[in-house]
Structures are given as C-alpha cells and as structure tokens.
Write a structure and sequence with these properties.
- The chain is of the alpha/beta class.
- It folds into two domains: about 15-130 and about 260-330, FAD/NAD(P)-binding domain, CATH 3.50.50; about 135-255, FAD/NAD(P)-binding domain.
- It contains seven helices and 25 strands.
- The strands form eight sheets. Strands 6-3-2-10-22 form a five-stranded parallel sheet, covered by helices on one side.
Length: about 350
Amino acid sequence: MLLNLVAKESKMIKTDILIIGAGPTGLFTVFEAGLLKLKCHLIDALPQAGGQCSEIYPKKPIYDIPGFPEILAGDLTRNLLEQGKQFEPGFTLGERAETIQKQNDGTFIVTTNKGTKHHAPVVAIAGGLGSFEPRKPQLNDLQKYEDNGVAYFIKNPEIYKNKKVAIAGGGDSALDWAIFLTNIASQVTLIHRRHEFRGALDSVEKVQELKTQGKINLITPAEVVGLKGKQSLEGIIIEKNNETSLLQVDNFLPLFGLSPKLGPIANWGLDIEKNAIKVDNTLDYQTNIPGVFAIGDVNTYPGKLKLILCGFHEATLMCQAAYKIINPGKKYVLKYTTVSGVDGFDGTRKQAPKAVVKAIE
C-alpha cells in the first residue's frame, strides 16, 4: 500500500490533528477524525506505519480486537491503513518528533530531528511505549548468541519451524508465543520463575491444557542461568530447586517485555508519571497543555489498561474534543456510520461514509 509520504521540502506541513506515533491507536485516530472532516498527519520514528505491530511482532496473533477472534498484528496494521485511506492522511516516517512550540494563536509547531516542521491546532501523542529496548536477562556471553539462537522479538515465526524452542517469561507475550509456536516448532519449552503467570487467564489455561497434551514443556518455578554453544546456541542451563540441568535447544527467546523511554517528548513540559503522560480521563485525555492530548499506551490515569481497544476508545473521545478546538462555536450532530442521508448520501447503503457529522452554524 502506498502511503502519502511527506515530500522533503522546507515548507510547513499543516494539518488539523498532528499525531505523534503511527501505531494502531494513531492509525485509528485518522478514521475517527475523518468522520468529523478533520485531516490528520502522522509522525513516526520508524520507517513504516504500525508501531510495534509492524516492527517487533507482525506475525503475532492478537485476540482482543472486537470482531476478530484472532488477527495477526501485521494484518491489523494493514486493515487500519485501509480503513483510514479514504481520509487521505499524511505521513512523516523515519523521523522523530523532537520539539514542540506553542504559537501566540494557541496552535503548535512540531519539528522532527531532521528539521521537518508541522503546524496544527491539535497535537495527539500516540507514541505507544515510546522508544523501547528489550529487557535482557543477566547472562554471561549473551551478546555472543544474539542473532545466533537468542532473540527478543519474533518477526517471522516460520524460522522456528521444526526447531527446539525455549521461551522465558510470564507475561502475555511469552504465553501467546508459546501457544502459537506449538503448531510450528518441534518442541516448545516455557520457563518462568514463578508458578503464577501475569498474562491473561485464558492464555494461562491454554498453556496448562497444552502441557497436559504434551505439546508444551512447562518448567516452573525455574530460571535460565546460562547458555551453551560454540558458534551458535546449542542449549540453555536451567536452575530449578537449587539444581541445574542442561536443555538442548536451537533457539532461546527471553520475552521479558520492553523498557520504554519517552525520548524528546519527556522534555515538552508534560506531567509525567512512571514514564507515561498524565491525562484527564474524565473527559477527553487532554494533557496539562491545552490542545495536546495523549492516547494509547503512552498515557496514564487511574484505572488505565494498556490495551489496543482502550487506545481506540481514547482516540474517539479525543477527536470529539479536537473538533471543538478546531471549530469553536460550531455544534454538530454525530450519527452512526451505518446512517446515510448526510452530506449527499441518498439513504442507500454505501461501502464507506466520507463523513457522518453535520455541522450546525
């Protein structure tokens, strides 16, 4: 799919809503804003849209997207791009949002690390976890085996076909990949230092079921304390009940999550708590800077859940507030996307509405 990439020119890029981050939440914002006849432009440091779904685990199945019992992360990205394409968003990819300057009229100029300037009355920060590094285990010679049997992300699960794979971790990523790889790898071992897992209950139950069926070798409580192999990984040393044993494996995947960093956004004068941006969740997810919003995993508020569908909800309410900022004094009627008869619709069902909001002067 061809994206509307920004030309490398010195001119100012103007838009209604400037979105920092082109992950799922940022991409869905394009659609919700489009229904309100608001234009969006997205900035992302990655060279392609999709955020973690494209960069880290495009082949990872996601189970909590409404209407999709299961969808691969890469497919979700493609669907979101297709959904928003009708509203013709702009993209500045491969550049990091570096500075923000508030203008006298209340609008903002955001400049990237490559000097590209963007001008908008509303800024929506949808940076997910920000820039991130994998949390690595403290093991001797770990770097020696990186890309030689040890990996922290799974981009293409087919490389583990008929391989002996060991996964360490107790969160959703470790559980989901252990389940998924049982249909690909010849042997899957899941190691966790506790009996209890942090992941979704349904995933925990599925792992226990696969253990009973002999499809997953579950070792708890235990920990990987060493790696073996001459040039590439040949085995891991596991410590359980103060005793060590060698397990022969082809691949070791320590899936301990990511260590997020906000990057330059941390210097924008925003209220930050534990590396996340504080927002007002009682209304519209606005930050302490009027006109600047934070949606998705990048924000925090009482009861926050870091789920994609929560980011979708936050994006929807944010766009309603953005409309009022961009169109002061205008009232509007929000209709369902299945309703026609607005702005030229003749009452028959169409493939996709160009807009479902009617402004009342």
